[in-house]
Each structure stands twice: as C-alpha cells, then as structure tokens.
Amino acid sequence: MTYSKDIGEVSAAFHPVSKVRSLTSKAGTVMRFVAPGSATEGRYGLFEWNMPAQAGGASPHFHKTFSEAFYVVSGTVGLYDGDSWVDATPGDFLYVPEGGVHGFRNDKDEPAKMLILFSPGAPREKYFEELVEVSLSGRTLSEEEWRELWARHDQFPA
User: Of 65, 75, 76, 83, which sits most exposed with the smallest number of CB within 10 A?
Assistant: First the structure.
C-alpha cells in the first residue's frame, strides 16, 4: 500500500494536450511526451509514437532499470520480442520486463501509431532529444560514441 490515509485528497494533476511536448525525428516520426516521468512523480512514462510509412525504428536492445510496454493504436508496427519480429496491429500489446530484448519499427507502406509505457518513469525524452539532435546535425558518431550515448540512457544493443 502506498497511500495510508483513510480519506482521499486533492492531488490530481491535469495536463492539457496544448502543453504536451513533441519531437520530430529526421525520418518524420513524431514523438509526443504525453506523460514523462517528470509529470508522474517518476512512477511511469507514457509516449505516443506516430510513425510515417517506412520510418524504421529501434533495433533490438534492452534496458536494465525499467520495463517497457508497447500498445498499437493504428497501422502495423513490427515488434521484436527477443526471439522474432511480429506484425502487431491495433489492440496488440507487448510487455518487456527489465533486461528483455526488444525492438520496434514501421517498415510498412502506411503510417502507424503506438503508445509506449515505461516504468518507472525514467527521463526517456532526453534520450530521444539527443538522438534527434545527432541525426539532424549530420554528425557521425563512432561505435564507441554510440555505445556511450546509449549507456548514458540505459539503452544496450542486443
């Protein structure tokens, strides 16, 4: 039990859509930081992922400090469950515990949308901001620089 009082309290925090930060990758994927850990007292993070056709995605990797879940809203998203790629369609869900190898991509000729939930609410938006900055700047990172960037954000290639 995390709340021990016998009476409820006024503690909800409304976050209007107009205040949701977003970021657009070089491939055109729009990442909406619907509920970053900073808005949920670090309990979880919820991002909306809007991928155009043939947008690619994340190759197989794992995290040591948080779990991740993927829920497909529209289109077809390729999800990697650590063993194989599956075509996930609206309503499909993939849960990945800490250490679980996973990946995602849109390699189809139609856009796709999914929700990504991670727990606890690590500051994942910082990772995606850095990735976008690197790709838009045209910088080329060495393998060592990539591994350092990934490790800084609890992202390890599988």
Answer: 83
